[in-house]
Amino acid sequence: MKNSDLYAVITCTNNKGGIGKTASSVNLSVTLGALGAKVLFIDGDPQGNGTKAMGVRDKFNPATQTLWHAFRNKLSYKDVRVASSYKNVDVIAASTDLEDATDVFSSSPRRLKLFKQLLQGAEQDYNYVFIDTPPAKGGVLTPAALSAADYYIIPSFADSDSYDGFVKIVSVCEEIKDAENEKLTCLGVLITCLKKNPASQAYLDYVTTLLKSANLPVFPHFIAQSDSMDSARLLGKPAVTLPNAAALKDGYLANAKFIVSQIKESKAGRPKKGPDLEKLGLIKNSSPLDEMVIKETKKLNMEF
Ligand SMILES: Nc1ncnc2c1ncn2[C@@H]1O[C@H](COP(=O)(O)OP(=O)(O)OP(=O)(O)O)[C@@H](O)[C@H]1O
Ligand SMILES: [Mg+2]
Question: Which residues touch 174 (CB under 8 Å, ≥6 apart)?
Fold first, then answer.
């Protein structure tokens, strides 16, 4: 039984690979489940990293209980979900054949409706649906996941290479919003692996101010780099469920609570202005971030 009327579909996306999309969607799902919310985690990436991280690799029938199978056969989430070992969290697993989705559906009128059809009625069972997406443009998968979403989160590392990615992914999301899904709202950039060094801190201070000035919020709680993430990958478990991962647990808990408060606020009818793409682009073109990092780091007396 779900515990309130709250229902939100949240897509984690960024064109850039390896910046914490899966870590964010998996750990936020498990954290919200532990807080009492009913959560469905959908692995929308043929790599299947989220499926592994959720520990369900041996719990689904690869012939009948995958996202691909649901898309191919127009099935409901109810037909393909499996229960995870984590409180209140169900999973729809990905298999490598999900790679075929782009070829099979690229000219189909269903292509942007794939997740929407899958999730019909899901508000009766869940408070939150998290969709993990593939890197790069994601073929039909990322646009379809954004078309079904109420909100999107942009996970990112804190490095200057990430900045170009924000402009790209926000453009894609805002296009989907204009063409297909007017409710799509940006929850913000989530820093997923903050290193303890002055260059990362300096970049973060600088870029946070810039992004905010372009109405692209940055989650106030940064997730610190942690060795527990490596252990979690090895064990096929969400990092927040490991002993000795207190800092990660606290970080994801703070962010989960932030998400709940942002969603409640937005559902209460206080819409915020969306990201200002022109300003984001201007910032990108006029602010040499690498120079900034060097300048800021010199201020902090770092050696090069
Ligand atoms: N806080 C952290 N501390 C240490 N390592 C981290 C942290 N967050 C993520 N990582 C590591 O960074 C790598 C990329 O993370 P993740 O797989 O979540 O990114 P992704 O964006 O989903 O990647 P892909 O684009 O391949 O799907 C992984 O090896 C993960 O364990
Ligand atoms: Mg991933």
Answer: 274, 275, 277
Structural domain span for residue 109:
8-299
Query: Does position 191 have pLDDT exceeding 60, yes or no?
Result: yes
pLDDT score at 281: 76
Ligand 1 within 6 A of CB of 18: yes
Distance (Å) from CA 240 to ligand 1 centroid: 14
Q: Is the pLDDT of residue 43 over 70?
A: yes
Ligand 1 centroid vs 20 CA: distance in angstroms? 4
Whether residue 22 has its Cβ less than 6 Å from ligand 1? yes
Q: Which atom of ligand 1 is nearest to the CA of 229?
A: 31
Q: Is the CB of 186 under 6 A from ligand 1?
A: no
What is the CATH classification number for the domain harbouring 133? 3.40.50.300
> Of 1-10, 234-243, 257-266, which range is least confident?
1-10
Q: What residues form DSSP beta bridges with 41?
A: 91, 130
| Residue 217 within a domain | yes
Q: Is the pLDDT of residue 287 over 90?
A: no
Distance 156 CA to ligand 1 centre (A): 9
In a domain, 97, yes or no: yes
> Quick one: pLDDT at residue 30?
98
Q: What is the pLDDT of residue 304?
A: 45
